[in-house]
Amino acid sequence: MFSRRVLLSWPKEVRHYSSEPSLLSTPFTDLHIKLKATMVDFAGYSMPVLYKGQTHIESHKWVRANCGVFDVSHMLQHRIKGPNTTSFLQKLCPTDLRSLKPFHSTLSVLLNNNGGVIDDCMITKHDEDSFYIVTNAGCRAKDIEFIKSELSNYNEGSGIEHNTFEGGLLAIQGPKAQEVVSKFTSSDLSTLYFGQSRFIPLDGFGSSEKFHIARGGYTGEDGFEISIPEIGVARDFFLALLQSDVVKPIGLAARDSLRLEAGMCLYGHELNEEITPVEASLNWLVSKSRRSDSFNGSEKILSQLENPKSVSFKRVGIKSKGPSPRQGNKIFASDNQSKQIGVVCSGSPSPTLGGNVGQAFINKPYQKTGTEVLIEIRGKLRPAVVSKMPFVEPKYYRP
């Protein structure tokens, strides 16, 4: 069950532009190379995993204590608007977007008809029937096709406009993020709270445009994500940020360990088209106001919510010592070492806590926090314990 349902391969993506024959570039790829980053293939993009002069642990701890800048321009940005857009999105997603206030954001998921996750996404409401959405790079081709197909079958969709766009997208994360970004804008960021967004000017970059900034991120720290479609402005802003003594560029290695400590999912690991939000322990994405509504996969998902005993496995946190667990490692019962009870979705050493943290799908009745289990790593069964997530308390900026 686990190998079929959990370990699905990453979907292919559309090639839009490239600095190499085989890989896509972001607006910052050449700058990463100049900064002596180790570049890797991530979802078809040439992306920095680590920068020279920083270890993974140093990068991770820098974000927890200072401010790190992540290039997330590989993610796909969408604008969707027009009459009935809210109703259309609520067919695809289980989240209540009607009650979402303008310039507020929410995590959600795009669902197939069986309740599986096509992709996770961040949805920002700009106005009634007007939204800005960010989806994953590795899912871009299927996301576009999925939305296009759903629109063509939606009876009231003739007035809905859906467009995607490329550009600079930077995540600025850490306790000093507000201090850093405030130096470049006249907008008072102290009044912008977690889950909110606005358009701000970036002073001193020769542009009269305002750029979308959202307070949030993928690390569990305070921070922002800024969308800058003007490539020249995006590059200049990135370089200007790095002039600060409290800012460093951060790559994919620390991004993964930071999100794991924060208990966040990564598509292709904790989420895929055969896993429902309930099985992924994301019940909260199904708004209470929508638990009698119809949406893609609602029959299965609402049944799981109403009958928790029908859900045989779910996503849980795990902690261990020694070699770090990785995606695909089998999990066995500590009282019956021949009985497989789960599979690891992802894992990493935890620079903040020491030891390892990870996420796994585990069968009942082994899901309770504190349950001892065994993980098969390098041919040996190694002890681990089911643990509460997030592993590190989030530090979101709230009123």
Automatic annotation (TrEMBL):
<dbReference type="Pfam" id="PF01571">
    <property type="entry name" value="GCV_T"/>
</dbReference>
<dbReference type="GO" id="GO:0006730">
    <property type="term" value="P:one-carbon metabolic process"/>
</dbReference>
<protein>
    <recommendedName>
        <fullName>Aminomethyltransferase</fullName>
        <ecNumber>2.1.2.10</ecNumber>
    </recommendedName>
</protein>
<dbReference type="Pfam" id="PF08669">
    <property type="entry name" value="GCV_T_C"/>
</dbReference>
<dbReference type="GO" id="GO:0032259">
    <property type="term" value="P:methylation"/>
</dbReference>
<dbReference type="GO" id="GO:0006546">
    <property type="term" value="P:glycine catabolic process"/>
</dbReference>
<dbReference type="GO" id="GO:0008168">
    <property type="term" value="F:methyltransferase activity"/>
</dbReference>
<dbReference type="GO" id="GO:0005739">
    <property type="term" value="C:mitochondrion"/>
</dbReference>
<feature type="domain" description="GCVT N-terminal">
    <location>
        <begin position="29"/>
        <end position="288"/>
    </location>
</feature>
<dbReference type="InterPro" id="IPR006222">
    <property type="entry name" value="GCVT_N"/>
</dbReference>
<keyword id="KW-0809">Transit peptide</keyword>
<dbReference type="InterPro" id="IPR027266">
    <property type="entry name" value="TrmE/GcvT-like"/>
</dbReference>
<dbReference type="InterPro" id="IPR006223">
    <property type="entry name" value="GcvT"/>
</dbReference>
<dbReference type="GO" id="GO:0005960">
    <property type="term" value="C:glycine cleavage complex"/>
</dbReference>
<comment type="function">
    <text>The glycine cleavage system catalyzes the degradation of glycine.</text>
</comment>
<feature type="domain" description="Aminomethyltransferase C-terminal">
    <location>
        <begin position="314"/>
        <end position="392"/>
    </location>
</feature>
<dbReference type="InterPro" id="IPR029043">
    <property type="entry name" value="GcvT/YgfZ_C"/>
</dbReference>
<dbReference type="InterPro" id="IPR013977">
    <property type="entry name" value="GcvT_C"/>
</dbReference>
<dbReference type="GO" id="GO:0004047">
    <property type="term" value="F:aminomethyltransferase activity"/>
</dbReference>
<comment type="similarity">
    <text>Belongs to the GcvT family.</text>
</comment>
<keyword id="KW-0496">Mitochondrion</keyword>
<keyword id="KW-0032">Aminotransferase</keyword>
<keyword id="KW-0808">Transferase</keyword>
<dbReference type="InterPro" id="IPR028896">
    <property type="entry name" value="GcvT/YgfZ/DmdA"/>
</dbReference>
<dbReference type="GO" id="GO:0008483">
    <property type="term" value="F:transaminase activity"/>
</dbReference>
<feature type="binding site">
    <location>
        <position position="225"/>
    </location>
    <ligand>
        <name>substrate</name>
    </ligand>
</feature>
<comment type="subunit">
    <text>The glycine cleavage system is composed of four proteins: P, T, L and H.</text>
</comment>
